[in-house]
């Protein structure tokens, strides 16, 4: 996504120097976020298996400090239980990251191998991608081949093993200014009414937002979506995307095709005043 946005920005900036009309004015306001020294954001994401938050601070130099749920493979290596799955991470770009651990800032490939499944997983079999949320009629699963979470002493839903709710959580981020660049460059409809913008995404735009950079194990087979953006003071302060599609996911269990629906509401604040502090040891680890 980062490469796509950079190419599009070069083309856009090389265009006419003056703009007319509400559409061009809205695009200029939206793209101004990428010029800011830093900003704070919270993305609330709801997919077929769960609802979770990603809290982030992004700087113009390309670093983002975030707190987010850990994918199951990372959570196990950190020795975390399903009730303690949020991690602190620093990203350089979209997928290159270090995680805060008891041994300091480590890259994901530096984490020790997990000793085995937790008591929760032995009791109920959590899926390979996400932690499920409770639904009416029973708990539903969290990834291809996964089933719901069952606490000791509970009775699984007889249809549980056949249900495959998928969480699209990834060990990667898309900073808001990059997602907004995708929206304004990959839409099939774009309507401006006052300080709000609504529209629909092209298939390319929906694919880029559904699967982030660096996810070689996930391939979007088809995708669609729509969006809404709120502006204030010539800058974007909130936007929502509604995405759905079909993904091909490769895991240790093999390859599977899953349908996914995902709604994300992102709030942006402290634009131009946010300071992102990156510890020296994290910078060194990211530079390796």
Question: What is the percent of helical residues?
Answer: 10-25%
Percent of residues in beta strands: 35-45%
Care to count the β-strands? 13
Q: What are the segments in which pLDDT stays under 50 over at least 5 consecutive residues?
A: 6-18, 118-163
Global shape = globular
How widely separated are the two ends? 22 Å
Rg, alpha carbons:
20 Å
H and E order:
HHEEEHEEEHEEHEEHEEEH
Q: Given the helix and strand composition, which structural class is it?
A: alpha+beta
Largest sheet: 11 strands, antiparallel
Calculate the mean pLDDT score and round it: 82
How many helices does DSSP assign?
A: 7
- Which sequence of strands runs across the widest sheet? 6-5-4-3-2-1-13-12-11-10-9
Describe, in plain words, how this protein is organized in 3D.
Helices cover 21% and strands 37% of the residues. It has seven helices and 13 strands. The protein has an eleven-stranded antiparallel beta sheet, with helices on both faces. A two-stranded antiparallel ribbon has the order 7-8.
Question: How do the helices and strands line up, and which of them pair or pack?
Answer:
Elements: H1 2-13, H2 21-31, E1 38-47, E2 51-59, E3 63-69, H3 72-77, E4 86-92, E5 96-101, E6 104-106, H4 119-124, E7 134-135, E8 138-139, H5 176-185, E9 187-193, E10 196-201, H6 203-210, E11 218-232, E12 235-251, E13 254-269, H7 280-287
Antiparallel strand pairs: 1-2, 1-13, 2-3, 3-4, 4-5, 5-6, 7-8, 9-10, 10-11, 11-12, 12-13
Helix pairs in contact: 1-5
